[in-house]
Specification:
- With 510 residues, the chain is mainly β.
- It has two domains: 6-262, Thrombin, subunit H (Beta Barrel); 275-509, Thrombin, subunit H, CATH 2.40.10.10.
- It is built from five helices and 27 strands.
- It has helices at residues 6-19, 178-181, 255-265, 422-425, 498-509; strands at residues 31-32, 41-46, 49-58, 61-64, 77-81, 94-103, 116-120, 148-153, 169-176, 197-201, 217-221, 229-235, 248-252, 275-276, 285-290, 293-302, 305-308, 322-326, 338-340, 342-347, 361-365, 392-397, 413-420, 441-445, 461-464, 473-480, 491-495.
- It has a seven-stranded antiparallel β-sheet, covered by helices on one side. A six-stranded antiparallel beta barrel has the order 8-9-10-13-12-11. The chain has a six-stranded antiparallel beta barrel with strand order 2-3-4-7-6-5.
- The radius of gyration is 24 Å and the shape is globular.
């Protein structure tokens, strides 16, 4: 995506790019989208000139294409959020400086591994109607040829017209078989379309995205993706766009890219391989929901307070219909469930999203819960003695039951994990001090040292029993993992240390 203002910025290189086949910098065949209906869209700007598109995936993180670095002056780079018109400014728009650039480590200025993260200097205010996070895909299953997708951008409306669209536009494209795209009639393997890419366009080449639209999202809808539109790819610079047999090339969000993203921004995905709990046995469990969709777990520690991770508080600053549900075994039936609004979402004052330190938060409900067989308070631990490695613990959540299925479990599941020595977790073959596993954290996983609990279960409880604990107790909170099925990448939990317990009790009393 590229604005009119960028023409002056790149005029000195346009002729060179044209000779190399990079003469198209726009979405072709697009239509106007409803204002602010794509609230996750980001305009990446250099010297106040639009150079690329991007997607807001966390309040401080934007996902885009690594090739966008060509046009960015890193000292004068910003992102614009909440934009529909690039020329007209309104109250919804936010302009934030870019703090850091993180291209994929194996990117080498080609279409392979063309993916990059931008860390913003401050968190976006996602309370605004026109600004919203786009969830990463929970399934990395490959797309079949014929799948219908859409692309979004602010670019030109035709290859010949140098006047760019001021308003955000969208176009429909169709996934094309890689074998076809690599054939002589198409790209002839120059570049080679690999399994890390998606080839998509239309038969006549009337709809396409190109270099100026690099970094924008590819949204697709298939039966295997639960019949909903899902973020599956990132627009890469094209060669000779809007030409028949030269479809757009997109970086596919594969498992390796998804794992890398999670490691950088500190999120995960699901409980894997769990078993159903007996109804009522997880009576302290809370489902944190946004627009009636489960997003995070939590623990009822007081009739009016839920303990969760700091990351989960984002759902109560969006202005959407975010709620806490208690007493649910099935998320669909909710026969015994109680639903609450949140009066206060309070992160630990020393929470650090980079280091994962103090990753915990408290949610104050709009009223006290009615305690029953299905809704109970789980007491805070009386002892803050550290848990030894080898201790058996349980984690609970409503996450996916397999890595290939993007639908969450309808029923509450549980799985056993084992505490792992911090020195091992900080070793080179594990997290290598990124993040540093401190004494206020617990490292736990399965027999292959895999996490098992991730984003959908973030904020959920770690329940442990050891020799000095007479019965199972709440010991930690699911905080971070680097993919759910990655060997030697156990789950990281915030330990309920003496300092953390003191803050919790003070906050509740206060």
């Amino acid at each position: 995506m590229i604005s009119m203002l960028q023409v002056a910025f790149v005029v000195s290189v346009l002729s060179v790019l044209a000779d190399q086949g990079y003469d198209c910098m726009e979405i072709i065949g697009g239509r106007n989208v409803k204002p602010y209906s794509r609230p996750y869209m980001v305009s990446i700007q250099s010297n106040n000139k639009h150079v690329c598109g991007g997607t807001l995936i966390q309040s401080k993180w934007v996902l885009t294409a690594a090739n966008c670095q060509k046009f960015i002056d890193k000292k004068k780079s910003t992102v614009i959020l909440g934009d529909h018109s690039l020329q007209k400014k309104d109250q919804l728009e936010q302009k934030i400086l870019v703090r850091s650039f993180f291209p994929y480590p194996e990117f080498k200025n080609t279409v392979e591994n063309d993916i990059m993260l931008l860390e913003l200097a401050q968190a976006a205010n996602i309370k605004n109607k026109g600004i919203e996070i786009l969830q990463l895909p929970t399934s990395t299953k490959d797309l079949k040829a014929g799948v219908k997708c859409s692309i979004v951008g602010w670019g030109q409306t035709s290859p010949k017209d140098k006047v760019l669209s001021d308003t955000l536009k969208e176009a429909d494209v169709t996934v094309i078989d890689r074998k076809t795209c690599n054939s002589k009639k198409y790209y002839n393997r120059n570049p080679a379309i690999t399994d890390n890419m998606i080839c998509a366009g239309d038969k006549k080449g009337k709809k396409d995205s190109c270099q100026g639209d690099g970094g924008g999202p590819l949204m697709c809808k298939t039966k295997t993706l639960s019949r909903k539109t899902v973020f599956v790819g990132i627009s890469s610079p094209g060669t000779d766009c809007a030409i028949a047999n030269r479809p757009g090339i997109y970086t596919r969000i594969t498992e390796k890219y998804l794992s890398w993203i999670k490691k950088k921004i500190g999120i995960g995905v699901e409980i894997i391989g769990g078993h159903d709990v007996k109804p009522g046995s997880g009576s302290y469990m809370a489902s944190i929901q946004s627009a009636n969709k489960h997003e995070c777990g939590g623990t009822l520690i007081h009739a009016q307070w839920v303990l969760t991770s700091a990351d989960c508080t984002v759902y109560f600053s969006k202005g959407r219909k975010s709620t806490v549900v208690l007493g649910a075994h099935s998320l669909q039936k909710k026969k015994k469930a109680q639903e609450f609004k949140v009066l206060l979402a309070k992160q630990h004052p020393k929470y650090d999203s980079k280091t994962e330190w103090n990753n915990l938060a408290l949610l104050k409900l709009d009223r006290a819960a009615k305690l029953s067989t299905f809704v109970k308070v789980l007491p805070l631990p009386k002892s803050t003695k550290d848990i030894k490695c080898g201790t058996k613990c349980n984690i609970l959540g409503w996450g996916q039951s397999t890595a290939d299925d993007d639908d969450p479990s309808d029923t509450l599941k549980e799985i056993s994990v084992t505490v792992i020595n911090r020195q091992i977790c900080n070793g080179k073959n594990y997290y290598n001090h990124d993040p540093v596993i401190t004494n206020d954290m617990i490292c736990a996983g399965d027999e292959k040292h895999r996490a098992k609990a991730c984003k959908g279960d973030a904020g959920g409880p770690l329940i442990c029993k050891s020799k000095f604990l007479k019965k199972k107790q709440l010991i930690g909170i699911a905080a971070f993992s680097w993919g759910c099925e990655v060997m030697n990448k156990p789950g990281i939990y915030t330990r309920l240390s003496n300092n953390h317990l003191k803050w919790i009790k003070t906050t509740i009393k206060g």
